[in-house]
Design goal:
Blueprint (H helix, E strand, L loop, with lengths): L9 E6 L6 H11 L4 E5 L2 E6 L6 H9 L3 H10 L9 E2 L1 H5 L5 E2 L10
Antiparallel strand pairs: 1-3, 2-3, 4-5
């Protein structure tokens, strides 16, 4: 990933279901988003970063699988002003695989 001089804020929100191990959810988040500050609040995990390089794993997957157009479509569809979001599959993330979801019910890692 090339170096950019940009200000950004990356936030991940993930519900921790009663049947899930908190440490496994943490692992899933850290597998796809690096260098994030995590915090457990109630039944959810919130991770934040101001470093766009936290998205390196997602970028590398998108680049190597040649799926840029699918990711771009998701990002553009959910764009509002200078912000966008997408869902990632929590189970896939735990297995170190990055998989986009269309709906929140597809085991999402959160927008």
């Amino acid at each position: 990933m090339r170096s950019l001089d940009v200000d950004c804020k990356i936030s991940a929100y993930c519900t921790i279901n009663a049947s899930e191990d908190i440490n496994k959810v943490r692992t899933a988040v850290s597998n796809v988003l690096t260098d994030m500050d995590e915090k457990i609040t109630g039944d959810s995990l919130v991770a934040n970063s101001n470093n766009y390089e936290s998205l390196t794993e997602i970028y590398e997957t998108m680049r190597t699988r040649k799926t840029k157009s699918a990711y771009r479509r998701h990002l553009m569809r959910n764009m509002t002003e200078d912000s966008t979001w997408f869902y990632l599959n929590k189970q896939a993330a735990f297995a170190n695989v990055i998989a986009l979801c269309d709906e929140a019910d597809e085991s999402p890692l959160g927008p």
